[in-house]
Amino acid sequence: MPTTNSPNHSKHNLHQGVRKSFDKAPVTISKNRSELSVHKIWFKGIGVCCWTFDADEFKSLDFDSEKIEFVMGFVLSGNASINTGEWKATISKGKYYSCNSSAVTHQLSFQKPTTLLMMTFENSAIEKLHNESSQYSPVIFADGVAIEEYRFTAMGPVINEIAKAIKAKPVKRIYLEAKLLELLSLQLEKGAETDEEDLGFNETDIQRLHEAKLIVSQNLQTPCSLIELARKTGLNDFKLKKGFKALFGATVFGYLNNLRMEQAYKLLTNNATVGYVAEVVGYKNAQHFTVAFKKKYGILPSQVSKNKS
């Protein structure tokens, strides 16, 4: 569930306000010189929220949910910084980010007035979309963090219409749902066009992809971002993401997560503490590690040694 933090704000008061915003919309939360306005609506496992931050000081928003599997955030004004613990990036107006929640948590930070249109997908919604369009849904719901431009694409007008519709009184659910499906359809088309492109891998590219795999495996605690990994290996972003998945059967982030969980399991079978294991495999927060581990293996880290005995 999202919580909002700021150096000069009461976490409890703002946290309660944000929690209520997911049960009743719209809502406005004011504290000192800051204000957070939220409009939201749910469609069978897909949530659409429009967050408007009006603040003169730093503010952050934490997401930590087992139900939310995938998040997309469209910056309508201002800019936002995202930190998943593994990847960090800044998104400006006209761009959007997509984040697979295998890492379970991510944090958004704002330093000036910002409007963010956010879509969240629960497991049930992703499974339904995958069954209906299994050929291209993996393109939308890819691992890791991706940042792309939307302003000058066919998605731009649709996103603006969704942002207006969610604030309308009363909210026209049928119209809003139709626009949401239109947006997803545009992304499916985009994914289809991307998959039809010729990757054009050569021997040098394959060597560089193996180098990328080695870099990921040697930096579990402090992994590179996709941009950094591409720069270090001399691959462009597209070839890195598509080539890594084609060659090794997993995305860069998925491969990193698998290595972390495998090492964590081995350490736990040797009676290492959960806090120690979380730190060794690159998690700053033991709770985030616990949720990620349970998602991977279906049990809590603390249960590993018990099952062994």
TrEMBL record:
<keyword id="KW-0804">Transcription</keyword>
<dbReference type="InterPro" id="IPR009057">
    <property type="entry name" value="Homeodomain-like_sf"/>
</dbReference>
<feature type="domain" description="HTH araC/xylS-type">
    <location>
        <begin position="210"/>
        <end position="307"/>
    </location>
</feature>
<dbReference type="Pfam" id="PF12833">
    <property type="entry name" value="HTH_18"/>
</dbReference>
<dbReference type="InterPro" id="IPR053142">
    <property type="entry name" value="PchR_regulatory_protein"/>
</dbReference>
<protein>
    <submittedName>
        <fullName>Helix-turn-helix transcriptional regulator</fullName>
    </submittedName>
</protein>
<keyword id="KW-0805">Transcription regulation</keyword>
<dbReference type="GO" id="GO:0003700">
    <property type="term" value="F:DNA-binding transcription factor activity"/>
</dbReference>
<dbReference type="InterPro" id="IPR018060">
    <property type="entry name" value="HTH_AraC"/>
</dbReference>
<dbReference type="GO" id="GO:0043565">
    <property type="term" value="F:sequence-specific DNA binding"/>
</dbReference>
